[in-house]
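Structure ticket #2291
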Amino acid sequence: MVDSGAPEEGWRMRRLGPRLRLFQAEGDRFKTCTLRVYLHAPLQAGTVTATALVPHLLGRGCEGHPDLTAIQRRREQLYGASVGAGVGKAGEVQSVFLGLDAVADRYLPPGSGVLAGAVDLLARLLLRPALDGEGRFPADIVAQEKENLGRRIRGLLNDKDLYANLRCIEAMCAGEPYALNGAGRLADLDGLGAAELTRRWRDLVEQAPIDIFAVGGGDGLAELVGQALEPLAAGSPTWPSTRVGTAPASPRRIEEQEPMQQAKLCMGYRTGITRGHPLYAGMLLAAGILGGFPHSKLFRNVREKASLAYYAHAHWDSLKGVVLVASGIEPERYAQAEGIITAQVEDLAAGRFDVDELEFTRLGLTNGMRAVMDSPYAMIDAAEHQALAGPLRPLSQRIAEIAAAGREDVVAAARTIVLDTVYFLRGPEGRPAAAGEGASGGEA
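Resolution: structure written out below.
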């Protein structure tokens, strides 16, 4: 085990093996130890749905605790320790994770061994799941979890706000892994059986690079985790990465219909700016001024001033370098809404924003970063995204970069924002005016 050196404001990274990294937040501000193990894989059409199923199969039983009832009984013995599993998408990386929460040993009678027991349970779920006599996930459990995943995916598609965002990304990034929904695809479910899913689990535990994030746990956690997950340490992993694409010569335009009354307008932009770019802080501020807060341009000018949208906001994915502007509008006001949204982006690139917009955004971003430190789950989520892009940087450094970024950095970042795709989702009735007909130049 190699120690990387002195802690950096809360996080220390240790190598537990060639493909196993442990990031531990030091200190004892919380009364629990929260730990997550992430197995990273490239986001790929051929494996996306199987990968999404694997963590839910792992959570159904393991050696010594073969079903949910036995797992619950073991949790009760561990003072209510909780275990969970899931899957996430970050850029073009799909990550299976298993996690635990356990009461910190210092609050329990000496010798309770709760943290050691919880880590052992998590390791069993990951490395020694309950399999049938042929060494596969049981067919009945596979059928149940396929049905559960199908319901989750259909639930996402029935949320029209989220559905419009997903469809815009699919159109914008067609042919790129980023177009895939990390939750999987309904069309894949029928073709996945116990053999394929067991093989996918084995591929992940044998090949995937692994990050472990822990908030709490004390000095002995690294040794505890290293021993429990020792079978995962060896190997020569290839860490998955995210490719930054470029916008087409002219924007793509897609219009679709679903049974609904309110329409959804999503506009996807490319920036080319990701974590590690010199304009990273400028892009954070630019995205915030555009649509990250109640004082932002989209909220004030599209929603409040023009009364065009029920909501209007912007999100910048700093791993992929794309900005998605999402809004809910009346279908007949499609062209006007697109015109005003376009005007806000143009104003930002031209430097037409005042000191209050800049400083309120700077304050909002730094307060948000500090607020992350109040939740172990938020701390782990933020650290996991950072670790996929490079070394974790101290909170003070990231806040200092935002404090140092000036108007010229925001303008330079905003000038990289290029429209790629306009996606419009509406009901079957009330065909709106075509884009550009009666479009406003904006009211910023």
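Closing remark: The chain has 14 helices and twelve strands.
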